[in-house]
Amino acid sequence: MRAVTWQGVNEVGVETVPDPTILNDRDVVLKVTRTTTCGSDLHLIGGYIPAMRTGDVIGHEFMGEVVEVGAEVRDRRVGDRVVVNSFIACGTCWYCRQELYSLCDNGNPNPGITEGLWGQSPGGCFGYSHAVGGFAGSHAEYVRVPYADVGTFVVPEEVSDDRALFASDAVSTGWMGADLAGTKPGDTVAVWGAGGVGQMAARAAMLLGAEQVVVIDRLPERLAQVRRHVGAEVVDYSTTDVMAELRERTGGRGPDVCIEAVGMEAHSPGVHGVYDQVKQQLRLQTDRPSAVREAILACRKGGSVFVLGVFAGPVDKFPLGAAMNKGLTLRGAQVHGQRYTPRILEHMARGELTTEHLATHVMPLEDAARGYELFKSKEDGCVRAVFLP
Amino acid sequence: MDLTQVIGRATGLAGGAGAALLQRLQHVRLPGVGQASATDDPERAARRWRAVTVLRDPADVDPAAGLPTPLAALGDRIEVRVTPAPGDRGTELAARYRHTPGPEEIGDLRAALREAKALLEVGEVLRVDPQPHGRRAATPQGAALEGAAKAAPREGVL
Hints:
The complex is a heterodimer of chains A (389) and B (158).
Chain A: E1 2-6, E2 12-16, E3 28-36, H1 39-45, E4 61-69, E5 81-84, E6 87-88, H2 94-97, H3 111-118, E7 124-125, E8 142-145, H4 148-151, E9 152-154, H5 161-164, H6 170-180, E10 188-192, H7 196-207, E11 212-217, H8 220-230, E12 233-236, H9 242-249, E13 257-260, H10 270-281, H11 290-298, E14 304-307, H12 320-325, E15 329-332, H13 337-349, E16 361-364, H14 368-377, E17 385-388
Helix pairs in contact in A: 6-7, 6-13
Chain B: H1 3-25, E1 29-30, E2 33-34, H2 42-47, E3 50-54, H3 69-72, E4 78-84, E5 91-97, H4 103-121, H5 140-151
Antiparallel strand pairs in B: 1-2, 3-5, 4-5
Helix pairs in contact in B: 1-5
């Protein structure tokens, strides 16, 4: 089959690889019909997560049709049209029973790598390095899906592929941030980052009853999408003092909930940005956390900050004093998609959650290298490149 | 030794180096990574109980009824302790060698405990190989990563 592979730092290509097979009785094999780039892929491609091997198949946000079913799969049939969560979870361990699916004890066959770095191992993920299992990714004609009864969801007839695709990760990640940050009716929610995840975090906050939702970014086409498709307010951080703007909009309090949807390669104007870039390039810190810092400083006293962007290691100049003295709740997680996908598909079926606008560039799988170039450079208004295998 | 042999030798050494690096990772003492406290002496570290918590009733994990196959394979070389976990978290399944084990044996025990937990909770151990992949460049960095990934089920803080 044809598949998109990591071929070195900043090198992505399409090559012929073996077809996947059923390896466990709870597996299915899926014919991939839609698979999309995600901002977190850029960290892999850029070499910031040094656990990629040349030839690894990438991609973790996808949907498709079931074409083969393992002997112990109970709820899926050949021909089912399903959307798949990016993290691989058994559904039976204590973490899965707490609906903390990305922390599954039985989803990552390579726990030794991340236990050494972080003290504990998260679950496994499709196409996201050997640190989280080394599973082949979804940018391919076919993909093996372990624990299929837990991680695949049949898409309702009234939801199109173009909409359902993003239930896989962007919407479920955004929804998780809004939910686990404790968004309540009447809250003001600020979201850093107007990519797919940030936009969906904002939409989820609105559906959870937030009174005011503000999305912060610098790219005009993304801010325009937020206004038009999400219905939230926007702030351009390249022309506006974000802290002053948020204070003014909240009667001086600051947002009740701050959601960071940017990750380890955050851009920042002025001396902050230069500082983080230099330290990261010198390997004196692994990640650029400027959006997290700002979220902590902007948040109201006693408020909540949720880190949705992917980070890998230690960061510098972390405002722990602000977090402690302001009594903040600070949380983060990889996506517990299985917890949210059923209700997301219901919202999609009712037309309350639309995502088609995120797919600004739809192209054949063979054009994946160009798709990632557009996505990384954000040229031509690219928000997401979607591949059709 | 021609260039191909030199590269092959370097690649082989790198694979071993990757595994060795992973073995040391949990003992790294850099701010923000690893630990800040004292490190056990090797004898004490090797003798510690290693434990997983299994979301099953203690009766389902009773050694008298037979240990899961991966632990049973270690035979009388290990002793096993089963205790109820607090707060409806299931059962703590711990094991250690009756003698002071070497690094290979500790790796065997880590893998056996993880596989036993998966068998008790899920009924099968998740496999990852063989996975579809493209052309693998024969580089020392790649070999080091492959060595680390191969060793990963047997390493970590368990």
